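We modelled the chain as a single entity of 117 amino acids. Its sequence is:
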Amino acid sequence: EYSFEEINADDYDAILVPGGWAPDKLRRYPEVLDFVRKMDAAKKPIGQICHAGWVLISANILQGKNVTSTPGIKDDMTNAGATWHDEPVTVDGHIVSSRRPPDLPPYVKAFADKLAE
């Protein structure tokens, strides 16, 4: 178990940001946002589902991206400069996003495919 202060983005191949209400807490930590920004700059796979988009919003990495999320944060996503799609999974470059748990089968496949690249 490590804290975000103890890890280095260079040591990781991808990040999968969890959904639910955890993202509202995670986005309050500068270390989390810095890690996500470094993964984005390196074009490493970033997975996000449900409310996880809040972390990407706070990391300021969604400008011009195509994404999906739980419909409840659609406005947040578009206000961050993203184009929101109501579909089970959206892949834009290295960012793989999904709406909610029923979309897990296509989301997990898309994220696994991105990791395999």
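As a brief sanity check on the tokenised model: The longest strand covers residues 46-49. The chain has a mean pLDDT of 97.
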